[in-house]
Amino acid sequence: MKKPILKLCLITAFSALLYSCSENEINQSDAKTESQKFKIIDVTHHDGKPFSTGASGNSSTGKYVDNPGGGVMMQAFYWDVPAGGNWWNTVSSKVTAWGNAGIGSIWLPPASKAQNGAFSMGYDPTDYFDFGDYNQNGTTETRFGSKTELVNLITAAHAENIKVYADIVINHNSGGQSEANPFTGTNTWTNFNGIASGKFKRTYANFYKNSYGNNDEGSFGGFPDLCHADPYVKDWLWIRADGVGKYYKNTMKFDGWRFDYVKGFGAWVVNAWNANVGGFSVGELWDSNVNVLNDWANAANSSVFDFACYYKMNDAFDGNNLALLNDDMMWKRNPYKAVTFVTNHDTDEIWSKMLAYSYILTHEGYPTIFYRDYEEWLDKNKLNNLIWIHNNKATGTTSILYSDNDEYVARRNGYNGNPGLVVYINNSDVWQERWIQTNWANTQIKDFTGNSTWYPTTQADKWVKIQCPPKGYSIWSINQ
What we know:
This protein is an alpha/beta fold. The protein has helices at about 1-35, 85-90, 95-100, 145-160, 230-240, 245-250, 265-275, 290-300, 305-320, 330-335, 355-360, 370-375, 380-395, and strands at about 40, 75, 105-110, 115, 125, 165-170, 175-180, 185-190, 205-210, 225, 255-260, 280-285, 305, 340, 365-370, 400-405, 405-410, 420-425, 430-435, 445, 465-470, 470-480. Helix 7 links the parallel strand 11 (about 255-260) and strand 12. About 50% of the residues are buried.
């Protein structure tokens, strides 16, 4: 009787195996069918070219070069960096490593002397031509250092083929002397005739309210509000060869501009600056309304920080609803004028920062990394990996393949022979798996973050199952 029993056992085991395989195939089919119900959202419609800052990307140093994914910017400061005049040296010590990591530009704080002297972060400008070489406002050096140290920093960055953007504050001034103002009938702090550089002297006639009007689009903090309608102000800011813009660009060698508080003046001001001075520019327009951001960017002929994206990421990642990433953002509306970010010196609300960085470094626009996130708070190796993926794989238009509360999957569709990528973000507490449609048939792919060890092969219809770790991300492309 032993042989029939053994035979029966083998038949039972084989049947169970067949049932298991059949059940698995059914489950796989059901999972794929479920994913196919999601209607793919083709977010952007253009020729696929990467974001460009308008400058040549050939590097004589062999370090950073413009790449298939476009550039990555580093905000090279935070609020209240250490005082004492050593910040320019601190940043100088970082640029070689940043260049090796693939950082293409750095954004510096306002570099000229401000009212609070050695303790100012620069947003209360007094003398646009004092970079730490005149003794005024109680100090010679700025909070960040001397003019020589600033020049050395810019030179060091350029040696790594890293562009340097100046934070420029042209809405308001501070630190002037009191003078009688016939337009207000009071005394105002608008006399800047005594500035040490002797360049771009100002009086009450150059600030609102004056002969050109009572006000412009906005004032800030009660500071004297520069009147850009005044030909003298225009001339000194962006027209004359030795004025602010052209001196910063041609003598100090800045490559572009971050315009502070652009709600305070008309978009035509930035447009005129860009037309006369040149260089990359981005405006700080603190508004989550995409229409407001896009209208300003077009009128100013400038990029703008994507606050719409910032607030949607905050709601999606911290509010546990990744479907909100389907909503409108500046990078979707106008990808060549959108500068994306996770935090900056003014606002730091997003808690799930690595998920947010995985989003902006795989999606369109010009992503910005915050100094403290990179150097102090987050895992630098993971950020470097995301920078590499952005520079080498994040190409082409964008399609959203799936989204719900916990999961978000998007595809960059590739450009100029580059295959693009698929990014999978998982905000749940467990591993997730999902079938998605790629652009690749019968092709082995891998997760370039190393978070998944799978090496799946896409089917003939370009579908494939991928996975993502809890509270994490995976980024897939052709294994080559």
